[in-house]
Design a protein that fits this description.
This protein is an alpha+beta fold. It has 26 helices and 24 strands.
């Protein structure tokens, strides 16, 4: 008897692309895509199985592999001899001795919905010539997200442990496997030869502890428990493996001298009797309805298991029927993995906390029981704002069917690529009886914070004058960041140290420059601090002094005003020209009306929201005083106004598209802006001119459709006299 391993998909943060329908492709296009997919899937296999460094998510990998299989079915003559659809795992590492599997360790076919499970059942019945009404019993067990391992026992003694490798040849990790507590060293009463197969994994809490230890020791951390388990088992030093919290679930077998039982379920009971851990959530199921019920049960309990699973495995229970059904080239006919949606998972919301942002925004965050979503362990999710928690959008329309979110709720977490996890749904049937609706104002009062929600906005903000230490530190970090003052040697660690220091304090931007006044006392105090000697202290003081003279746009951006990014800071600097003019205009526009306000709104790229944020900052007495203390320490360079006199593009909106051959895109943009033009990233009715290089695509077509003037790079250079 034999059974496959149960892991085949690499992971990452990416998503799969969508190609043209297979039926619409000609052989030339199909061959090009088959070649590309073969390379991508093969590389993903090696990264996942060979390097323990996944580059694709389950969803992305599955989509690519299914697409490749569809193309190979449609164009069988184009199928390559090295196709990854005919391979399992990846080539074993040269680091370990090789082990040949006497019975191949295969992968599993994947299914993603109930319809595919019905097809699986229909195929089996057709193969066995069973009537639709005849009972067919399956087992359903959680699909552990770990590393497949084969354990060979001879006369009841563990003699060899091997990874799956490419299914035929694995890596010898016997010494490492012996350190795992869940793996018995001897099996009294076992068959003379017994090869037990299962999954090595790591629990959620142990994974978090391991990453914390790795961070403390300055070592690399792991993306998820599966990577941590695989990396821990595949160590040259078994002592490292022994120090890692690894576990093992047994679920299958390879070579054996006599059968364990007549059924899959009975064989698992026998393995448990030998001392192996088998999954307690394994169920016997009659028919697909029972299988899908087991799937729903496991999915609901997924977040409480304490370890990662990525689906449920269904197997024909009768081992005699398994023998009759046999195998395809890489998968058994009698088993299938019903995968969970890669970017969705259910878990418990343990706490709703309010975080204070750099600009004073009060943002609610969900603290979750850790769960792996899309290959990443998620323990936090954004709750956006008060309305989102209450189950409504900004216009008062219901979202999630109007269901609010409460502490203690069982929630469905959604994550796609690098997007911050969100709450997709709430299971009201599991809501605790004592769960209370979340009240923003009450929670702020409990935290000792005074907040307000400006009319027409969805976000609560701190009332004037309240700046908690963590917010002040974040503002200072922004102030010294690369796009702002960019002070070498003054990063987040140093900012936090200076903020907490009573002898050399930095509590607001102006303090940075008063600190650096070159007197012997400040230098001697600093050179005795952790991380600073006489030279590094002097270098820091010099770096600060070098930034006293700075451009106007950098100063505006460094202030960290809400809605004012680097581009907006450049616009404002070019418009006002000097710090004096900018400062005077912001104060004069404070009433929200009059010439100064109208002038601010007239700047192309500045809307009412940004304008209100700008003048609101200067209207706050404490903020304004802090800004003015900073200005007294600086020599702010006037911004050079665009050379609009005689410029053929002054006041025009220009879009660059395609490949520029005589200058970079950044240079072209800078030249255009210096001549008084506005450079936009997309074509619209407001666009005056499109400069199109080779490879121009949709933007050129859109410009043509709108009747917008379009010229090539040479014509652009002639136009601007370059």
């Amino acid at each position: 008897m034999s059974a496959p391993g149960e892991r085949e998909s690499p992971k990452d943060n990416g998503g799969a692309f969508v190609d043209s329908p297979v039926a619409s492709l000609d052989p030339g296009a199909a061959k090009a895509e088959i070649d590309r997919l073969t390379v991508e899937v093969t590389q993903a296999n090696h990264a996942y199985h060979g390097e323990d460094a996944p580059v694709l998510s389950d969803a992305a990998y599955d989509a690519l592999k299914r697409r490749l299989a569809e193309l190979e079915t449609r164009f069988p003559d184009l199928k390559r001899s090295d196709s990854p659809t005919e391979r399992v795992g990846a080539t074993p590492s040269e680091t370990f001795d090789k082990v040949s599997h006497r019975v191949r360790m295969l992968s599993l076919e994947n299914a993603f919905d109930a319809g595919e499970i019905d097809e699986f059942d229909t195929r089996i019945r057709r193969f066995l010539n069973l009537d639709a009404g005849e009972d067919l019993t399956y087992t359903a067990e959680p699909k552990i997200d770990g590393l497949s391992l084969s354990l060979r026992y001879v006369e009841g003694v563990l003699v060899q442990a091997a990874t799956r490798g490419d299914g035929e040849t694995g890596e010898n990790v016997t010494a490492n496997a012996r350190t795992i507590r869940d793996i018995p060293k001897s099996l009294p009463g076992a068959p003379a030869v017994l090869e037990v197969r299962g999954e090595v994994y790591m629990g959620h809490d142990e994974f978090q502890d391991l990453n914390a230890r790795q961070t403390r020791e300055g070592l690399k951390t792991f993306a998820n428990p599966r990577n941590a388990a695989a990396g821990s088992l595949r160590q040259l030093d078994a002592g490292i493996t022994a120090a890692r919290p690894l576990h093992f679930f047994a679920y299958a077998w390879g070579e054996m001298s006599e059968p364990l039982a007549d059924t899959q379920f009975g064989a698992l009971d026998r393995l448990a009797a030998f001392g192996f851990q088998t999954n307690p959530m394994t169920r016997e199921c009659k028919g697909t309805v029972a299988l899908l019920a087991a799937y729903a049960e496991v999915e609901q309990k997924r977040a409480t298991l304490g370890y990662d699973i990525d689906g449920v495995v269904y197997k024909v229970n009768s081992l005699a029927l398994q023998q009759r059904l046999g195998f395809r080239s890489t998968t058994p006919r009698w088993a299938i993995a019903h995968k969970f949606p890669a970017e969705l998972a259910w878990t418990r919301l343990e706490k709703i906390e309010i975080q204070v942002g750099r600009t004073g925004a009060l943002s609610p965050v969900a603290r979750l029981a850790p769960v792996t979503v899309g290959g990443v362990v998620v323990s936090n999710a954004t709750l956006h704002n008060e309305d989102y928690i209450a189950g409504r959008d900004a216009k008062g329309n219901p979202i999630r069917g109007g269901k609010d979110i409460r502490e203690g709720d069982w929630v469905q977490v959604y994550r796609a690529g690098d997007v911050i996890p969100k709450i997709a749904d709430v299971d009201l049937s599991k809501r605790p009886e004592d769960a209370r609706a979340f009240d923003f104002a009450t929670e702020l009062a409990r935290l000792g914070l005074r907040g307000l929600r400006p009319e027409g906005e969805s976000v609560w903000r701190l009332a004037e004058g309240q700046i908690p230490p963590e917010v002040a530190i974040e503002r200072l970090n922004h102030f010294v960041s690369r796009g702002a003052f960019d002070i070498e040697g003054l990063g987040p660690r140093q900012i936090e140290m200076f903020y907490a220091d009573d002898t050399l304090p930095i509590r607001e931007p102006a303090d940075i420059f008063t600190l650096a006044r070159r007197d012997a006392r400040n230098l001697s105090r600093l050179k005795n601090r952790d991380g600073f000697g006489e030279r590094s202290a002097g270098n820091l003081f010099q770096a600060i002094e070098d930034r006293r003279k700075i451009s106007l746009n950098r100063v505006i951006f460094a202030l960290g005003i809400r809605h004012v990014g680097e581009n907006a800071a450049n616009l404002l600097a070019r418009h006002y020209g000097s710090w004096t003019a900018f400062h005077h205009a912001m104060i004069s526009a404070g009433a929200g009306e009059g010439p100064a306000w109208d002038d601010l709104l007239a700047i192309d790229g500045v809307g009412a929201v940004m304008a209100a944020s700008l003048v609101g900052t200067f209207a706050q007495a404490a903020e304004r005083a802090s800004i003015e203390r900073l200005a007294e320490e600086l020599d702010v360079e006037d911004s050079r106004r665009p050379m609009t006199e005689g410029s053929p593009v002054a006041g025009k909106t220009v879009v660059f598209t395609g490949t520029l051959e005589k200058m970079t895109r950044a240079e072209a943009k800078a030249r255009a802006e210096a001549l008084g033009a506005k450079v936009a990233g997309s074509v619209s009715a407001k666009t005056d001119l499109v400069v199109a290089g080779p490879g121009a695509g949709s933007k050129a077509k859109q410009a043509e459709a709108l009747g917008i003037e379009m010229i090539d790079e040479d014509a652009w250079l002639r136009l601007i006299g370059a």
